Amino acid sequence: MEIVEDRYGAGSTLITSQLPVDAWHDVIDEPTFADAILDRLVHNAYRLALDGPPMRDPKTSKIETVTPIVDADGGAAATAMKPAKAAKA
Q: Is the pTM of this model over 0.70?
C-alpha cells in the first residue's frame, strides 16, 4: 500500500499480474486496503489484457545465444536473443 500511495499522482506506475483485476480483492486479505489500492491503480489507468499462448511452452525453442546491444556510450543497452535451431526429427 505504501508504494502505491507514494506513486499515486507522482508519475507512472506499471503493474503486471497473471490474475484478472476482479480477483485482486481475493488476494489482498484486507478489504479496505484492496479498495484503496485498486482505486488508486485503476483511476486514470490504461489496462492491457494480453491473451495468447504461454511463453514458457515446452514446444518453444531454447535460447542459443545472447548478444549485448551497445548504446552510443558503449554501455550495454539491451540484449538480443537468437532462438536455437529447430531439432531435426
A: no
Q: Which three cell numbers stand for residue 6?
A: 507514494
Output the CA angle 24-30-33, nearest 5 degrees.
Answer: 75
The string of DSSP letters for 10-73 reads TS------SS-GGGHHHHSS-HHHHHHHHHHHHTT-------SS-TT-TTSPPEEEEEEEE-TT
Tens-level pLDDT at each residue, the chain (89 residues): 677 777 777 777 777 788 887 888 888 888 888 888 888 777 777 877 777 777 776 665 565 555 666 666 666 555 555 555 555 55
